[in-house]
Each structure stands twice: as C-alpha cells, then as structure tokens.
Design goal:
Elements (H helix, E strand, L loop, with lengths): L7 E6 L6 E12 L2 E8 L9 E8 L5 E4 L3 H27 L1
Antiparallel strand pairs: 1-2, 2-3, 3-4, 4-5
C-alpha cells in the first residue's frame, strides 16, 4: 500500500442498518496470516476520534472488503496493534536520543 492509499477517506455501509459512515484508513497490519485495517472515525474534533480495526477479506470478485472482527478475538487483535505502536514509538524515541 502506498502513502496515497493510507490516510484516505473510505465510506462503510452498515449491512444491518444501512447507515453510511466515513472513516480515515490510517494503517494496516497482519496477524496470524490475516490482514487488518486500522480506521479512524472522521471527526472534526480530534478528541472525539475513535479507532476501530476491521479484517480485510477478499470478496468473490477479488476486491478487498472490510468486515468486523469476531468479538472473542477483539482483545487479542487490539492488544497486538497497541504493541506494534509501542514498538514503533520506542524505536523512534531511541533514534532521537542517539
């Protein structure tokens, strides 16, 4: 994924309610052979911004689709992403101090 795809605005329609919501596609990562997308709510006030993680799956037509992750795996997936972010910021802090 190039930088133009990252941080792009995407619209997701709730399949149950039909409600459409805009998100910022902020990041992606892999865990146990599955790909995940990190989305941020597109709020004017940054303090109200929330992060959600969705699984990226390939549809029948080859297009990448997003689906909610199983509730029983949510904690594992969010904790793993938090660890990735912690490692990234620790690495950046270490580089600044050298």
């Amino acid at each position: 994924m190039d930088n133009e795809e990252r941080d792009s605005i995407i619209e997701i329609e709730d399949s149950e309610t039909g409600e459409k919501m805009e998100f910022i596609y902020a990041d992606q990562f892999e865990l146990n052979g599955k790909a995940y997308a990190v989305l941020l709510t597109n709020e004017e006030n940054e303090e109200d911004t929330e992060m959600i993680i969705m699984e990226q799956v390939e549809g029948d037509d080859g297009e990448i689709m997003l689906q909610t992750i199983d509730e029983d795996k949510e904690d594992i997936i969010y904790d793993y992403y938090d660890e990735l972010c912690d490692q990234l910021f620790d690495d950046e802090d270490g580089e600044d101090q050298e």
